Amino acid sequence: MHPFSAIRPPPLAVGLGMAGLVPFVGGALGLWVIPDAWRGRVMEELLSYAAVILAFMGAIHWGLAMRADESSDKAPIQLGLSVIPPLLGWFALSLPINLGLPVFFLAFACLYFADLWAVNHGLAPVWYPALRKPLSIVVVLSLAVAWVATWIEH
């Protein structure tokens, strides 16, 4: 069976995807339990990791565009989708935290829909949404939990 037609994501992709959630969940929850003196550092690391992952996710779309048929009208869209996530991450890092966090979680939410677009146009494997949906939900919820933590004084 061709890997693009498989319905279930490869186990290695699932395992690595889950491992990639550790900094999101750990950072978001850490903001609620660590001493105040460390909160700024944990938030910086969480947002830096989010920006790196947005760049990584954009690179996936670049790779999908490179695999597309050169005559495809979808490849230019895919290339465009590849540069938006890292630019949003970079932009979000320049904002105050209470504004940057919503940019991050909106970027990750929108990226999921870009992933669905790629699958629906035959550019990404059929199994990709089964991997991305739970990962995206955990990332967005983690960033929302971190955002709420910025509103509450410890």
Automatic annotation (TrEMBL):
Chain segments annotated as transmembrane: 12-34, 46-66, 87-114, 134-152
Leader sequence residues: none
Keywords (A to Z) from UniProt: Membrane, Transmembrane, Transmembrane helix
Entry protein name: DUF3429 domain-containing protein
The keyword Transmembrane helix appears for this protein: yes
PANTHER family, A to Z: TRANSMEMBRANE PROTEIN 69
Species for this entry: Halopseudomonas laoshanensis
InterPro entries xref list: DUF3429
